Amino acid sequence: MSTVSITTTENELRGNEMKLSLLFAALFVFGGYCNISAQGVQTKVPYDSYKGITIGMPAADVRTKLGKRTDESDAEDDFTFSETESARVFYDDKKTVRVISIMYTGDLKLAPTPKTVVGTDVPSKADGGIQKTVQYPKAGFWISYSRTGGDDAIVMITLQKMAKEN
Q1: Model confidence over 97-134: pLDDT tens digits?
Q2: How far is CA 80 from CA 97, 105, 113, 120, in A?
Q3: Which of 12, 32, 49, 122 is the most exposed place for a label (fewest CB within 10 A)?
Q4: What pTM, to 2 d.p., does this model score?
Q5: Distance, CA of 36 to chain centre
């Protein structure tokens, strides 16, 4: 019986990996092409790093701070911290952080709230889904908080480099 339980857990993890890949793709498409209104632009940054990792940090420093990677390349590194928390860090041509994407699955009690990430409470949709993106031009990045709807919700937080405003 425990073999069936392990197989189910592995299948659930594969399903979460697929959801993660789809969510990453959607966030990059959304982040690259969206036009965020002035209401979504703020100056005070409530969430500017993840586990000490910031936009613009050298890849070597990221790897030192976060430790063992589950997958790595010159362009990105994947980190798994627990069954419910993982991150993907993307690098630019200068080998500095251009995107930090964090995913929480399963038990979402450890996931930050929208207020912690984007600085305000965000009303959820009828299915429980939440999405809010805020630009911080003076800091040189935007941040997005997304929570899928339904019973198997996923929280995805993305910080992405943008043109810095002086």
Answers
A1: 999 999 999 989 899 999 999 999 999 999 999 999 99
A2: 18, 12, 20, 28
A3: 32
A4: 0.75
A5: 18
